[in-house]
Amino acid sequence: MTRPQLQVLPGYGETDVEPYVDFCGHCGKRQEAAAPASRVCGNCHLGLIVSAPGSLAPGAKEPFLIVDGRLQVCAVSRRAERLLGIAEADVVDRQLTDVLLPADAEAVGVEGFVSTIVHAARGDGIVRDLVVRPAGEWGIRWFTRIGPCATPSAVLIVLAPNG
Amino acid sequence: MRTLKTSEAASELNVSPNTLRAWERRFGYPRPMRTEGRHRLYTHGEIASLRDALKEGLSISSAISRARENLRADTPVLVGALSACELDRADAAMEAALALRSVERAVEEILLPSLHEIADRSGEASAPWAFAVQWASDWLNRARRLAPSGVRPLTVLVGDATRDEQDPDALDTWALELFAQRAGAEVLTLPVTGLVGLGDVLANFHPRAIVIAGSHAGDDDVARWAYAVRAASGPLPVALYRRGSRRPAGRTTGTLVLPHSPSAAQHELMALVEGRPAAPVPASEPSVERSASIAPVQLRRSASA
Ligand SMILES: [Zn+2]
For B74, B169, B247, B280, which has the most beta carbons within 10 A of its beta carbon? Predict the structure, then answer.
């Protein structure tokens, strides 16, 4: 008597997860493939090594921020400090909306902005694009890529000032 | 208090000594003490707290923020113990604080903030405040008894211008006296209202500087007392501590206004006594030899006390 067997059907079980790359959460420098012995960047000494999908991870000159699922700022890259005129130590643990807001609030709304971050924090793996502006300023807008990063699991916001 | 050399602290955090120094410059943490030879010495508690925070952190800033929070966790314990009039638990809270910090930092980061919180909550005319002040006075006095006195030929006369023990400025003044003594000075405190027999005392105690501490006594009383001291001991430099004066940008007409923080005040006071400019040194930077001389276990109140 033959017993029924489970079979993998084409398209199922094949994860489509983009490989993650490692970079420094302060200077942004990409790290070698081998896991470093320390989580601290050997280039600037001032950032921890973070991972994100290759298409999301910041390029050499792209400023970025990292926030957690509660929308609290966890890291601000050196270039983002310069671009936003803030010091990481001053904004760590503050709400992201103290720093960035959606540029077109009528179209997206602060709720939509928040919801994008929350979804990214849940790790749905999707990289989204959004236009933002610095809190308290108008007439400036930046295109951003928003998606998951680790570890621990958080949200990476890459700013593209010239985008 | 367990301490680590730079290489040991760096190894514990799995970073290089250069990285540690870069963090000290940028974040002010970890904040090492210095040995007599000016070598850095880190408290194990500060390094362990940072090591744990780095494991779950996304940036050095956020890890340091977390590590600082963890170290401040002793404050609610002390506030709770003093509010409940539990002497042993209050002593234990300070012992725990001393396991992670120098005496100076335990006083500035745990004892003083806890007392100020009780004053804010209950008011300065309350029984909890009176109880807390009595405990703090006792604790600081015990620490002073264990600190070496007159190691260096630095003598400081403190003119007590506070109202009484319940005056919040008295607490900071006691802390300043303790820190100055731990830095090697001999400290004598006299009330600014007591002129009788002052000359006899000063015949045996030769101060190098005068500190007027507290804002309760009026300017006339203070002026009379300072005049009597200078008449007996010569034209000594005068510093004001907690006298309600706005701190000027630099030293003004001969009278130095000390910063509010007892450790920063002690640092400037020592520079004044030694006749050198006060270099910008991080607050609470005690000498290690003396810091290690008061082990937590030594501060435990005896059963008979
Ligand atoms: Zn780096």
Answer: B74
